[in-house]
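Appendix B: complex inputs.
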Amino acid sequence: MSAPKRKLKVATTSLAGCFGCHMSLLDIDERILKLLELVELDRSPLTDIKHCGPCDLGLVEGGLCNAENVHVLREFRKQCKVLVAVGACAINGGLPAQRNHLDVRECLTSVYRTVPNDPELPLPLDHVHPINDVVRIDYSLPGCPPPADALWQFLTDFIAGRTPSLGHGLIHYD
Amino acid sequence: MTSLETSQTDKPTRRISIDQVSRVEGHGKVTLLLDDEGHVHQARLHIVEFRGFERFIQGRPYWEVPVMVQRLCGICPVSHHLAASKALDVVVGATQLTPTAEKVRRLMHYGQMLQSHALHFFHLSSPDLLFGFDSEVSKRNVVGVVAAYPELATHGVLLRKFGQEVIRLTAGKRVHGTGSIPGGVNKSLTRAERDELLAALPDVLQWAREGVDLVKALHQKNTALYESFGLFRSSLLSLVGPGGRLEFYDGVIRARDADGQVMVDGIEPKNYRQHIEEEVKSWSYMKFPYLTALGPERGWYKVGPLARVQNCDFIHTPLAEAERQAFREAHGGQMVHAPLAYHWTRLIELLHAAEVIGELLRDDDLMGDALVVSGERVGEGVGIIEAPRGTLIHHYKVDSQDLVTMCNLIVSTTHNNQAMNEAIRSVAREYLDGHEPTEGLMNHLEVAIRAFDPCLSCATHAMGRMPLYVEVRDASGAVVGSATKSSR
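Resulting structure:
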């Protein structure tokens, strides 16, 4: 018969986002305790694992605003069997992409005059990009942020081996 | 030993880093420069992201702003939602909100204070305090807390849930709601909503008290560590309310020096610019604010719970006031600068927030129907609020077409920039200097940063239009040039 069921490994990250999607994940409230019985967290803002290991599922919040975001996203794509764009910023750049009609150099110099410039600071991209500009994504969960119930529905479907499907009222874009 | 901000040594050094700082909100990293003998020559907390909200807000209609700017931060969106609303109240001439609007906003804000403090303590920081700073990585997180202390973890989750429900019922949504608008609010509470929250309150107060008891017990068990870890002395700054009481929603600016002497007091929010300036350093996108009168070297300060609880003269709710007194007595009435004391004061504030929510829920004004006022339209407004992490300043100019022409934000975490850097330098001196930097030792640096509950996303969005003084340094740290840009 089948081997003992191992816990699914899940990694999460916030790129150029606000952590609101992660907050919405925590907004499943007491169900988080159940979720943690079913999955093992890998790299996530909630753990101190700094690099993503091989995972079954990767949840990516936020778009791409600098070179480091691109690097982290590629690490996630490489390590995660299934990658999900969570929320408006990951799907289309979101509010941070409002800077796309501005020239980033002008933007920086108007603020700092002498722009912070240090090997430790990742280079800003000239435009904020949605994550599917750089890697293939498997699912998107819309919303700013996606409702907690949508995240819960997605995760429970995924964990149970069903094709995730959001029902009535769980897809909205605000 | 030098300040450790910039290496002064000629010896070869190697760089080690924490990339990224975890269990905090946003993107930051720490770098250290060590020589061959393991002595630390430089320690910096870098904020590595730049977004530019203040620039792209320009040209947008002012009424969009409270909803747009809360996307600065998903943990404390209500802070930005309300600080922007308060600034734009001034613009629409709403000098006095209706009692319903003011109380609904207050309820929203105290709900946020409760949920954010609960999240920070129970989900993010408690693993360090419960398991040890150098405990096993795989256990040192909320999953470990759930396994080892299931009741505590559950209460943390439920406390946060209650705060989020307060936000949902006042703002329409738990994250990025729409309840507050320039001049007031767009909804009040129904009786059923009010009763639902009131019914949950006794448990919430009980869990909040248990939280304070836990953090007190942790301090008592290991007093020497809690009083010395990451220690540095600094001034502090916050809003205070009427009579000098602890106040999160509205007040005047007060700052005390490291000995507790009041340096400035009664500063109206609209005059903030005369008192606070910001410095830029080449190695971080986060600026370094300071009190103008004292200059950048001596004028920096800390904000947040540890500043607020010691800056106020009293807390007007009885349970939290008793805890404030206990906190003072435990330290002989002396000013407390130890970063880990942030946790203690944060939980006192959490208890206070629960008490104030109770006060507000028993006030029928919450269910009133006078929601919005307006008056003489003016071109500029400042709104200041005490966000969970400290003082938050929003400042806008709006033209006759109702479009924003200027936006300046100084967010809570930015005020703590120098303080967090001082804390990691203190830890680097005490724990890392001359030692092989293990993962556990490196986590000590993060423990110091976490105490401040930094919200690095907020800080990275901010790009101010404050007067700037910029120094250009060469590789050895010598100043080779400087430039000044004054405010308009």
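Chain A touches chain B through 52 residues (CB under 8 Å).
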